[in-house]
């Protein structure tokens, strides 16, 4: 076979096929999208599909969108940040435990120890312990990734709660 003919055929195939990093296929878009848009409505729908009860919080012109997620006995505040033109770049989940009656007993050593061993972030603020986790969503995310993130976060919430005084 003619080497020039084979080279020309390979060139045509190369130019007509999108470049794919690491041999991975391009993300599917449209009705059967694998990658979900980083919008509040899509995030809410994906969380509901994962089995959580989700309520969108009232919109406020001074803040990014937020919602309340009920996951078993836990009420999780979820907010989106760095939003522009309806799309956001991060989603954060946050849970807190009110210790305002015993504010003097709040243990920052507990939060420091936690932060050195876990990906979730704990802190003390205004008489309460908080546990947060943030996931980047700029450019989209998969429903499986969102569900895994929320599952991991809720596991950490349970573990953190067991550490509380």
TrEMBL record:
Residues 1-21 form the signal peptide. Keywords: Signal. It comes from the Bacteria. Pfam families: YbjN. This is YbjN domain-containing protein. It comes from Deinococcus seoulensis.
């Amino acid at each position: 076979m003619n080497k020039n003919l084979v080279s020309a055929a390979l060139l045509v195939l190369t130019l007509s096929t999108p470049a794919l990093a690491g041999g991975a296929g391009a993300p599917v878009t449209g009705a059967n999208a694998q990658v979900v848009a980083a919008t509040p409505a899509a995030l809410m729908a994906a969380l509901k599909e994962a089995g959580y009860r989700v309520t969108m919080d009232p919109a406020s012109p001074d803040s990014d969108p937020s919602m309340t997620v009920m996951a078993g006995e836990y009420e999780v505040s979820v907010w989106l940040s760095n939003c522009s033109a309806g799309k956001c770049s991060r989603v954060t989940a946050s849970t807190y435990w009110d210790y305002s009656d015993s504010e003097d007993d709040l243990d920052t050593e507990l939060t420091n120890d936690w932060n050195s061993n876990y990906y979730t972030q704990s802190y003390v603020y205004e008489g309460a312990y908080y546990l947060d986790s943030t996931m980047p969503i700029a450019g989209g995310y998969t429903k499986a990734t969102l569900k895994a993130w929320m599952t991991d976060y809720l596991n950490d919430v349970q573990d953190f709660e067991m550490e509380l005084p």
